[in-house]
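Complex 762.
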Amino acid sequence: MSRGGDSPRITPSEPALRIILRRLREIMAEPSDGQSRLDRIVRQIAGLMVAEVCSIYLKRQDGSLELFATEGLNPGAVHNTFMKRGEGLVGRCAELAVPINEPDAQNHPAFSYRPETGEEIYHSFLAVPILRGGDVLGVLTVQNKTPKEYSDEDVEVLQTTAMVLAEHLVSGAVPGANTGAEYNRTLGHVIRGQPLSEGLALGHVVLHEARIVVTELESKDPDEENRRLEAAVEELKASIDEMLEQGELAATGEHRDVLEAYRMFAHDRGWLRRMKEAIKRGMTAEAAVERAQNDTRARMLRQSDSYWRERLRDLDELSDRLLRILSGRPRAHVGAANLLHDTVLVARTMGAADLLDYDRSRLRGLVLEDSGGQSHVAIVAKALGIAAVGNARGIMERVDQGNPIIVDAESGEVHIRPSSEVIGAYGDKARFQARRHRKYRALRDRPALTKDGQRIELHINAGLLMDVPHLGESGADGIGLFRTELQFMISATLPRLERQIQMYRAVVAEAGQKPVVFRTLDVGGDKVLPYLRQPQEENPALGWRAIRLGLDRPGLLRTQVRALLRATSGVELRLLLPMVTAVGEVDMARALIDRELDLLQKRAMPGPTKVLLGVMIEVPSLLYELDALMPRIDFVSVGSNDLLQYFFAADRNNTRVAARYDALSAAPLRALAAIVDAARQHGRPLSLCGEMASRPLEAMALIGLGYRSISMAPASVGPVKSMILSLDAGELQRWLRATIHTAEGNVRPQLKRYAEEHGVEI
Ligand code: PEP
Ligand code: MG
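Predicted structure with magnesium ion bound:
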C-alpha cells in the first residue's frame, strides 16, 4: 500500500477496495450505536491501509470541524479538537472539497498544530472530503510517521470509505453529526437568496428530482456492471438525441444549445473511462457514476470562472440523469398530472434542460440552493417569466413536498410555510401587481404618445430566441438591442456559421415586421468563452472585450457579420457595435462589413436590402468625438449601463459602489443631452438601451432631455408607456434643459417633485 514503506503492502485496486467495502458492510450491519461504528471504521481503515492514524472530522453547524473518531491520535482529543472553517489541512480539505496529499504535513504552511492530539510525530498526511450530494459533511484522514506521498490507490480507497461514511451519517445514526437533517420542517422560515428572475410567486413546493440515493456500492460482477453502465450511457445519448429532434426544440434555438452541450459531455470518453475504472475496482455502476460526479462537484467548487462552473454543472446534471436511468426512473420531473397548478420548484441545482422539461403553465416560481445569476437556468427562467431565487442556502433541508411557499424575487426572500399574516400581505401585493399588469396589458395596443402628441418609440432588449415573443406581448415597437453573446454563452462550443444563421434567421422571422437591432458580440472581460482562449486580466471591464476583441480576432467578427448578412436576406440589417472608444474602430468594422458584402455579391448570394451601422455610446471618450462619429454611422444607441460605469468610475456589478452615484445627477444628464444635440445636428436616429430606460422616472428624464426612442426590459414597457401617456414632453423638456444647465449634484428629488406636481404616473 504505502509507497516504499516497510509495512506490508495490500495490492492496489480491486482486492483492497473489496476488503474494505466488505468490512465496512459488516460494521454497518452490526447492532451498535453510531459512535461505536465510527470508532470501528477508523480502526479498520488504519489497519487495512497500514496507516498509523485514521481520523474522522465532522462538520458542525457553524462550518467548523470536530474530531469525532480517531485511531492513533490521543483518544482524549475526540470531541475536544475543533478546527475553524478553513483552518489547517483538514479545514482546507473541507473548504476546497478535494483530497490533500502531503508527504511532509508538519512543514506545510497551512498546517495547524494541535498539541492535544499528539500528531507531531506524523509526517505524511492524506485527507479526503466526506461528500454527500455536493455537500461536504466532514473529512477523513490517514497519517503515517514516514514522509511519503500516498498513492492514487490509497486516495481511491479512502474516497470510497468516505462515500460509505456519508451514507452512514445521513442515516442520522451518529448523534451530533451535522447532516442538515435536524431542521424543524414544520416551522415557518425565511431564506434570503439572490434574485435570478423578477416576480412574485405564491404556491406549493414541488421538489425537483429527489436525488437518487446510491446504496449499493460494491458489485458482485464487474462485467455485468460494465454492461449496465454502457447500456445506460447509450440510453442517455439516445434520449438527448430524441430531445434534440423534437419539433418544438428545433424551433427554439437556445434549448438546442443547452442540449448540444449535454450531447458533447455524454460522448466524452474521459467521463466514461473514469466511471469504468471505478467499476473495475469493484463498484456498482451507480457508485461509479456518483464517484465521478463527486469529482465533478469538487472541481465545480474550486472553479471561480462562472462559465466553466456552468459547464461542470451540465456534467453534474448529466450524471443525475444517468443515475436515474440506472435506477429505472429516467425522468426527473413529476408527471404533468401530478404537477400542482401553482408549482414552485425547489432544487439544489437544476440544469436549463430540466426546467424546460416542466409544463410551463403550472410553474409559478423556482428556488435553487446554489445557482447564481449567470447560470443557464437563470437565463431560461427569466425568458420564461418565472419568479426565481438562487443561492438560497439550506432550502433543501428545510422544505418538504407540498409545503406552502412564497418566492419574492424582488428582494430575494423565500418564505417557507409562511404564517397567514405573511400570506395575506403577499396576497395583497400579488393582487395589486395583477391589477397593474391588467392595466398595462390594456395599454398594449395604444401608441406611446405624450399628452402633447409626441410619439416615443419603445423597444425591448432581448438576447435569446425565447425572449422574442415578448415583443408581441408588450406591444413594443421592435427589439432595440439583441445581445447576441447570450447564445455564445450557453453553447459548449463556438456556434458555427450555419448555427448562427439559423438562430438570427429565427429571431428575424419571430419578430415579423418589427425591426431588430443586432449587437455584435460583446464578449471578453467577465464574459469569458473558454473556447476563445483569453488572457486573465487584472481589470476585465477595462480590458480586451467587445469590439476590441472583434477587431483583433477578425475571424470571429467576420463569421458573425457573414451570418447576420445571410440571415437578413430581403430585409434591413441593423448592426450595432459595442464599446466603441475611438472612431477609427468604426472605420475598421465598416471595412470588414463591406468586404463581407462584396463577397456575398460575388457569390451571388441574397443579402439584406440595406445595412444600417450603429454605434453604442458606452465609453466617455466618444462624447468628445461625436462630430467625427455621427457622419460615419447610420444610428446611435447609448449603453447607459456601461457609460455610467465608466463616467463615474464605479463598477456596475460591485454592490458597494454601483448605486453610489445617481444617473439622475446633473453631470451625466448633461452628457446625455450633448448626445441628443449631436444626433439631432447630424440627423442621426438616437436611442438609449441601458437599464435607465426601464425605470419610469429615469425614462421621463430621458424624454425631457430629448430622447424619442428607448429600449428596455420587456416588463417595463407597460409602466413606461403609462408614464408617457400622462406626460407633456415639451413642457418637461423646457424645464429640464434649463434645470440641468444650472443644477449641481443630484436632480432626482426635483424630477420626482416635477412628476408629482404635473400628475405624471411614475
Ligand atoms: C449598456 O451598457 O447599457 C448595455 C445596454 O449593454 P450591456 O448591458 O449588455 O453591457
Ligand atoms: Mg454595455
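Confidence is low (pLDDT under 50) at residues 1-12.
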